[in-house]
Amino acid sequence: MAPSKNLLKLRMKKRFVNPKNEEVWKGRDMDRVPGEAGKAQERRCGVSLGMDLKAGFDLSQENSVSGLPLPDAFVEFLKENGLDSSAYAGAETIPRYIRLKPGCESQLMDIETELDCKLEKVDWLPNFFSIPSHIQIASTNAYRSGKIYGMDAASGAAVMALDVTFGDHVLDLCCAPGAKLCMLADLLGNSGSITGVDVAQHRLAACRTMLQKYKLGDQCRLFVADGTTFSLVPVGSHTDMKLCSIDGQDMDIFREWTSKRSWKDRKDAAKKKVGTSTQASEEPLEPELIFYGRDSGVVGAQRTKLFRMADDNVISTSGYDKVIVDAECTHDGSVKHIQKFEYWGWSTFQRRVLDAKRTQNLTCLQWSMTLDWTGQSSYGTASSENRQQSKKLALLTNGFRLLKVGGSLVYSTCSLTVSQNEGVIKLFLSTNPSAELMKIDAADKWRCRCGGIARTVRFDPKTSQTSGLFIAKFTKLAC
Ligand SMILES: C[S@@+](CC[C@H](N)C(=O)[O-])C[C@H]1O[C@@H](n2cnc3c(N)ncnc32)[C@H](O)[C@@H]1O
């Protein structure tokens, strides 16, 4: 006889100990889907843009097969979004992932000794290792001294999809707390630049701390700003912007960043605060630079020029080479996030997930209601006003606007819903003729499935033994 929901809940509670992101589940042997099976699944999916959005989902199974004590509200949420709860099956077998800081390869054995477990190499993702999910890393020396990162393998895949190359200028439009940004910085080494943007100041401050901990800040600058309106191009893109000597007393020139803010910075920030409180809420948030590294191109730049917005002509040739939009979402694909409700209480699920879903713009909601499983949605009926309200769409559109011609953009969410993924993509493509979906070459080796639109990919917990993630990659055509 199947255990009752309450019994399952109790078992789950026993496993869950630490509320602070350190879920303590008893690890079992990993029961992974062989790579070939994953590939076969991909091959089964069609390739045309108007394909059936059911592809990649198995709707035939009952919710009970997930084996998780999913509350009715969540099951309802999954049903509403055409998702099969069996995607969450075997969640306890999903390992924890760590990323090894490049250069620390020779210390693997020491790290294994300290963590008291074997680091299993993730064969499809460089520098990633899986460890049993009950292993906690936060208190270890390896973690504290910046030799390892805690990062899900699917998130690593989103970064790899961007294919950064030496010298790229990269924009991370929703960057905090910074796991992807740090990986980007590791991949770029001492070349190019990274601009991180996030609307949440406290989260961006955590990102700054992370950059400093891992000693990765030299090429980076961080802005508290609304990614839907952010409009600054990489440093050096304005032809008339030359770096100046910082010997003099010119207060308009950026000096080396220090955690102590100058009198001028404090005055500017105070001015902005007054401005923001009196600004109409529709007015764009003025970007606030909260960190810049010594090789980010900011030191020696003139303030007035650094904060000058670029027009589309400048952007097409001197915009970012790579952009990642890791949009805020309902987090329903993240098993670790869903597990937290065992601690927070399932009653908070309504507020934390369903209300979040509601507060998204109307476009996405309308989409989820009007999209039928044949993909022949009536999305065209959403008014252009509602389209403007779409936060994800606005983030994606603005990220794409800041991309130079020939550059590439990765859009990812840790939601498995169609409305937040394929729905947004389809609408985006219909309004941006210069955008073309690209095949993610590295995905041939990943344990993912194809998304509901050709060339997009989905990691679902059951198939990939990672958190759920959706990834799409675009390039910008000249037109
Ligand atoms: C999924 S998290 C990003 C995770 C991050 N990429 C990482 O790897 O650590 C989404 C982020 O988007 C930010 N965000 C939400 N709305 C935003 C907006 N309009 N502009 C910029 N950032 C936004 C949130 O504050 C949150 O930090």
TrEMBL record:
Amino acids binding S-adenosyl-L-methionine: 198, 226, 326
Statement: the UniProt record of this protein carries the keyword Transferase: yes
InterPro entries for this protein: MeTrfase_RsmB-F_NOP2_cat, MeTrfase_RsmB-F_NOP2_dom, RCMT, RCMT_subfamily_9, SAM-dependent_MTases_sf
Active-site feature positions: 414 (nucleophile)
Highest taxon of the lineage: Eukaryota
Domain SAM-dependent MTase RsmB/NOP-type: 83-477
Residue stretches spanning the membrane: none
Keyword Oxidoreductase attributed: no
This protein's UniProt keywords: Methyltransferase, RNA-binding, S-adenosyl-L-methionine, Transferase
Family of this protein: Belongs to the class I-like SAM-binding methyltransferase superfamily. RsmB/NOP family.
Protein name per its UniProtKB record: SAM-dependent MTase RsmB/NOP-type domain-containing protein
